[in-house]
Amino acid sequence: MSEHGHVLPLRVYLAVFLALLGGTALTTWVATHDLGPLNDAVALGIAGTKSALVILYFMHVRYQTRLVWVFSLAGFVWLVLFFILILADYETRLPVQGWGG
Amino acid sequence: MSSAAPQLAQGAHADGSLAHHFESHAQQNQAATLGMWAFLVQEVMFFGGLFTVYLVYRTLHPGAFAEGSAHLPRDLGTLNTGVLIGSSLTMALAVRCGQLAQGKRAALLIVATMALAAVFLGVKAVEYGHKWEDGLVPGLRWNPAAGADAHLNLFYALYFVMTGCHALHMLIGLVLMVFVARKAWRGGYSGANYLGIECLGLYWHFVDLVWIFLFPLLYLLHGPGGHA
Amino acid sequence: MSAQATPKPPSYLGGEYGMRSWFLTLDHKRIGLLYLLGVTFFFLVGGIFAVLLRLELLTPAGDLFQSETYNKLFTLHGVFMVFFFLLPAIPAVLGNFLLPLMIGARDLAFPRINLLSWYIFMVGGLFTTYAMLAGGVDTGWTFYTPYSSTYANSHVIATALGIFISGFSSILTGVNFIATIHKLRAPGLTWFRLPLFVWAHYATSLIMVLGTPVVAITILLVAVERLLHVGIFDPAFGGDPVLFQHMFWFYSHPAVYIMILPAMGVISEVIACFSRKRVFGYSFVAFSSLAIAVLGFLVWGHHMFVSGQSLYAGVVFSLLSMLVAIPSAVKVFNWTATLYRGSIAFDAPMMYALGFIGLFTIGGLTGIFLATLAVDLHVHDTYFVIAHFHFVMVGGTVMAYLAGLHFWWPKMLGRLYPELLARVTAVIIFVGFNLTFLPQFVLGYLGMPRRYHVYPDEFQVLNVLSTAGASILGLGFALTAVYLTWSLRYGKKAVPNPFDAVGLEWTVASPPPAHNFEHVPSVHHEAYEREREEPARV
After folding, report:
1. How far, in Å, are A5, B12, B114 from residue A2 at the CA level?
2. HSE-up (13 A, CA, CB side) for residue C125
3. Which of B140, B90, B142, B93 is nearest to B119 (CA)?
4. How far is B213 from A16, CA to CA, in rounded Å?
């Protein structure tokens, strides 16, 4: 990073802002329809896209070193590992009276 | 390292913008950015722990979660999401002004961010108030309607803890914004060293990121959605 | 035409005097010493609890303490030792002091955050000390729900709050180390020229940052549950107590790697110096630190084999736990290869390091026994587990801490410790340790449960042996504290490199000046590389 860093033009920020608002409207609209398991996938997909925009542009990661890229992803990757292994327990428990829904 | 660098560094050390153990502003900036990102990684894991609890209980009791989500005011939640995204924009623009050494503009943009944050927190307070009236605050005032899902308390416990932790982080951000805005207004940052604004910006965008996931997972579980 | 010699700058111990210059210091070396005082105090507190519970266990009957009191004794022993001694000791004392010196820097990346870390640590420790004085906590250091969240009548929240607070100290230290190692290395000091101590602390910092926040949120949830009874861990309200265990152990297992990785870093340095050889298989040792840090996050369920976790999860965690043993074994093999055909000196640090290798191996292997589902069914929650983790934490971490403390004592405090007495004490500690904990493997295998203050008569002999060993161990620790303190005033003054070791920290005075280096050094040699002692053959 040089003295001033990479200065993005105003229109980039505004474009990202509008995209984020659009994504919010979209996710709210999709939620009013019943797509079964797809609801979750779409909601998380939109949230993931919005996050990527915030991280890449608002947080400037797009113009940072690879090391910063790794750090910005590390937490999410670690969480996914946690989720997978913890579900290894919860998804494989034998049915017990009163559990599971 | 060129021979000019030690002299440059000496001057910067003398005026206080460069800490004694760094050789250049570039090194100082890179270290601070990396440090801030390492801090954000731990924040991701902190909220991630809550998302894990959410994952487990929603897997075990999906009905309770759908029902709880249906009672949350979708319109207020959407409004708040928009407000927070707006505050992220103003903060990003404040950082940009920091890069361009426009201290006073940066300060004003930070104040705008604070105003939007205050709106968000105000709306949250209204939401919490409604939940209190409805008797849907586990542990404090829990009178769900007859026939409500037996495990509704788990959803609402998570709702309050997750949005509460998020709100606490916003409050901390507000306090930090006061200090940074003041320093920016008084010309305390330069094009070479606007780390305070940059790190505050990263923190605030992280707060936005948490909400980007909280909102659909709490408010938008399939259903018609409640209102204010 | 040589000019008048420039006066030597005062050491970091001199120069500035008075309380403010210590309690408001930004010098990583002074902060390291502040941590030394803190962890020593908490070690003493934890040690006193150990003495009390071993006294109770001299007889099969519960005749010294009531069971509720005994529960508090082992809980507080665990809490103080784990959170306020083992986790911070090597990273916060030795790591803080040595990292900048080893990489040719003048300080850590964030000196003010370093000081803040110490204050946060002390506040957390004092909170927990208050909880102890106010009546203590009896849940076990593992705080399992729903006992801790619903039924315990002791000071759970105060203790948990102390741990929560000190967790931030850990996180901030990790952030500081990561930024420092990435950005403040001297010119020419590439990653693969770094001392292995630095690699170890880098890997440790990754764990601190990734793991600690999860236990923080877990503690927060227990506090919420205890205060408001929302049902998060209470089966009567749909909560799952096993979820607490998942959340708790997701951090607490990697936490034990926070305890052992820096220890392994110390051992690499000590073995290299006292074999007068570079560490064999440098890159394997370096990568094994990272591998332990990563794999260590994937094995937590091996603490939960009999908790109600699914059998499938048990199998997965059992297999992953076997995997994590591999990088540890890699290290032991490489240290052994380093010793082979080295020029061995048996100074006190080396004696501790050699002890570490043997004791850590036993501890590690018994960990594999425990990771085996069928065996764990029988020995879970017995003294076998206690023996296992004391072998790695005391036989491992504490030995390495003592090795490092002795090795860098001259550098840190400018005085030599008394060598003969130190060697004798090392033997006392080794003997005392083995006498304390080897019988516990047998006790556990024979079925004596942990956390019980009464036991069947036939276990008494082994318990008496264990308590006798603990007395000897305690004597050894006391001796160490006494002669190290003695050396501050009466020890021989140290030269910059009293052990003829290789490393940037040995190129500066003992103790170092406040700013570490006159000029930022430039590094042209590999790690542990010695200058040729004889002319190269043509």
Report:
1. 5, 16, 29
2. 27
3. B90
4. 17
Cα gap C418→C62, rounded to integer Å: 42
Please judge whether C310 and A74 are an interchain contact, meaning their C-beta atoms are less than 8 angstroms apart. no
Q: Which residues of B touch C182 (CB under 8 A)?
A: 31, 34
Report the alpha-carbon distance of residue C334 to residue C332 in Å, rounded: 5
DSSP string, C15-38: SS-SHHHHHT---HHHHHHHHHHH
CB C196 within 8 A of CB C270: no
When the pLDDT of each residue in chain C is averaged and rounded to a whole number, the result is 95
The phi and psi torsions of B141 (rounded to 5 degrees) equal -155, 85
Give residue B154's pLDDT.
96
Interchain CB distance below 8 Å, B38 and C100? no
Give the tens place of pLDDT for each residue, C135-193: 999 999 999 999 999 999 899 999 999 999 999 999 999 999 999 999 999 999 999 99
Mind telling me how many Å the CA of B137 is from chain C's nearest CA?
9
Chains touching chain C through at least 3 C-beta pairs below 8 angstroms are A, B
User: Distance between CA atoms of A5 and C342, rounded to whole angstroms?
Assistant: 51
pLDDT of residue B227: 55
| Bridge partner list, B142 | B136
Tracing tokens 């085996």 back to the chain, one arrives at C372
d(CA C355, CA C531) in angstroms, rounded, equals: 29
C87: left (phi over 0), alpha (psi -120 to 50) or beta: alpha
* DSSP code, position A3: S
Q: Which pTM does this prediction carry?
A: 0.95
The answer to whether the beta carbons of residues C42 and C80 sit under 8 Å apart is yes
Please give the full DSSP string across C102-170, using - where no structure is assigned.
HHT-SS-S-HHHHHHHHHHHHHHHHHHHHHHHTT---STTTT-TTIIIII--S-HHHHHHHHHHHHHHH
Which residue stretches of C229-310 are H helix?
A: 241-275, 282-295
Lookup: tokens for B202: 């990263």
A79 vs A73: CA distance, rounded Å:
10
Q: Which residue has the tokens 């709050």?
A: C161
Rounded to 10 degrees, the C-alpha dihedral A24/A44/B76/B71 comes to 150
Token pair listed for C133: 């004085």
pLDDT score recorded for residue B2: 41
Contact state of B220 with A31 under an 8 Å Cβ cutoff: yes
Per-residue pLDDT of chain B (228 residues; tens, 9 = 90+): 344 455 556 667 777 788 899 999 999 999 999 999 999 999 999 999 999 999 999 999 999 999 999 999 999 999 999 999 999 999 999 999 999 999 999 999 999 999 999 999 999 999 999 999 999 999 999 999 888 898 999 999 999 999 999 999 999 999 999 999 999 999 999 888 899 999 999 999 999 999 999 999 999 987 665 554
The secondary element (H helix, E strand) that includes residue B142 is strand B141-142
Query: C513 has which bridge partners?
Result: C11
SS3 A33: coil
Of the candidates C437, C443, C438, which has an alpha carbon nearest to the alpha carbon of residue C460? C443
Neighboring chain A residues of C210 at a CB cutoff of 8 Å: 74-75, 78
Residue C456, judged by CB atoms within 10 A of its CB (0-12, 13-18, 19+), counts as exposed
CA C326 to chain centre: 20
Under the banding of pLDDT at 50, 70 and 90, the label for residue C536 is: very low
CA angle C390, C394, C398 (to 5 degrees): 160
In a mutational test of the B interface, the residue from A6, A7, A28, A42 whose CB has the highest number of chain B CBs within 10 Å is A28
